[in-house]
Amino acid sequence: MSIIDNFQKRVSTMPKVAIAKRKVEIIEAIAELTTELKIVEDTDHRDSIEATLEILRDGLKVVNHQREDRSSGLAALGLL
After folding, report:
1. Helices (H), the chain
2. What's this model's pTM, rounded to 2 decimal places?
3. DSSP state, 13?
């Protein structure tokens, strides 16, 4: 099971507030690594940062998708 699959499984059971908090953490990590990527010259380190950024972006997609699913489900039930 991949990192994203594990993350998706965990997010699917999280309360909405925890999902929002996780989204903020992911965005902050992406911002930090993007800044670091601009100043790092070592290619191996850059490759590592880019791989991590890719995983974080995939994680952000999972979080956004989960929030959309919950919102549409709640709207369908007339709770939003």
Report:
1. 3-11, 16-39, 43-76
2. 0.73
3. T
Q: Long-range pairs for 29-37 at CB < 8 Å and ≥24 separation? A: 29/56, 30/56, 30/57, 30/60
Please state the separation of Cα 53 from the chain's center in Å: 10
* CB 7, CB 29: distance < 8 Å: no
User: Residue 44, Cα to own-chain centre: how many angstroms?
Assistant: 24
Per-residue pLDDT of 32-47, as tens digits, reads 999 999 999 888 999 9
Q: What is the distance between the alpha carbons of residues 75 and 37, in angstroms, rounded to a whole number?
A: 40
In degrees rounded to 5, what are phi and psi of residue 27? -60, -40
